[in-house]
Automatic annotation (TrEMBL):
GO MF annotations, alphabetized: methyltransferase activity
Tagged with keyword NADP: no
Keywords: Methyltransferase, Transferase
Descriptive protein name: Methyltransferase
Keyword Transferase among record annotations: yes
CDD domains to which the protein is assigned, alphabetical: AdoMet_MTases
Length: 204
C-alpha cells in the first residue's frame, strides 16, 4: 500500500518473510526479514558503516538500539557485550516480532525488544547505537532523539549514522544547538556518504 512504510505501527502489506545471511560481530548468521520493514534484503549501507566504525559498546549496564528494525544493531551489541542488557525499540509490530526471533536465532539471551513506552522510564543507557528513521520527517525524528539522548548515563555515548544526502550535517548542527552543555556533539567519521555522529554525555 502507498502509505505502508517501515515506520508504520502495523504494516498491512503481505508479510512475505525471507531469510538473509549476514555477519554480525564476526559471526555468520541466518536471520529473518519480511516485507513492510526497513532493508528487508539484508544490512543497509548505513548500518554497515555504523557497525564498522563504532568502538565496542559498554561491557555492562543498559545498551539501546533506537529504531531496531529486524535487529542487526541490537544483536551486534548483545554479541559484543554479553554482560550488558540490550534494548531494541521500534514502533513497527512486524519488526518487533522479527527482532525477537532473530535475537534468539543468534543465540543471544540479553536482548529485550519493545515498544518505546515499554522501556522503564528510569532506565539510563551507557551506549546508544542507532540508524535513526530519517524518513519519518524532521519533527518526528527530533522528537525521537530528544526522547532517548537525554537518557544517556553521564560518561555514556550515542552513535548515530545518517546519510549526508538526507541531512546528516544539518542534524549534527541541530543536535549541537539543541542539547544542553552536558552533551558534546561531534562527527566521528564519514564513510560512503554517511556521517557517524557521536553524542557524549559529560554532565547530568
Amino acid at each position: 500500500m502507498a502509505n505502508d512504510h517501515y515506520f508504520s505501527a502495523d504494516p498491512s502489506s503481505e508479510v512475505r518473510e525471507r531469510q538473509v545471511h549476514v555477519t554480525l560481530a564476526g559471526r555468520p548468521l541466518t536471520l529473518s526479514t519480511a516485507a513492510g520493514v526497513f532493508s528487508p534484503d539484508g544490512l543497509d549501507r548505513g548500518t554497515r558503516v555504523l557497525l564498522g566504525s563504532v568502538p565496542p559498546p559498554a561491557a555492562e549496564g543498559a545498551l539501546l538500539d533506537v529504531g531496531c528494525g529486524w535487529g542487526p544493531i541490537a544483536i551486534t551489541m548483545a554479541l559484543e557485550s554479553p554482560g550488558a542488557a540490550v534494548w531494541g525499540v521500534d514502533v513497527n509490530q512486524r519488526v518487533l516480532g522479527l527482532a525477537r526471533a532473530n535475537a534468539a536465532a543468534a543465540g543471544t539471551t540479553n536482548v529485550t525488544v519493545a515498544l518505546p513506552d515499554e522501556v522503564p522510564a528510569d532506565l539510563r543507557f551507557r551506549t546508544i547505537w542507532s540508524n535513526p528513521p530519517i524518513r519519518v520527517g524532521k519533527d518526528e525524528l527530533h522528537a525521537i532523539l530528544l526522547t532517548w539522548l537525554p537518557r544517556l548515563e553521564v560518561g555514556g555515548d550515542a552513535w548515530l549514522v545518517v546519510s549526508k544526502d538526507l541531512g546528516g550535517d544539518s542534524l549534527q548542527r541541530w543536535l549541537r544547538e539543541t542539547l544542553d552543555d552536558g552533551f558534546q556533539v561531534a562527527r566521528a567519521t564519514t564513510d560512503k556518504g554517511f556521517r557517524v555522529i557521536r553524542v557524549h554525555r559529560t554532565a547530568p
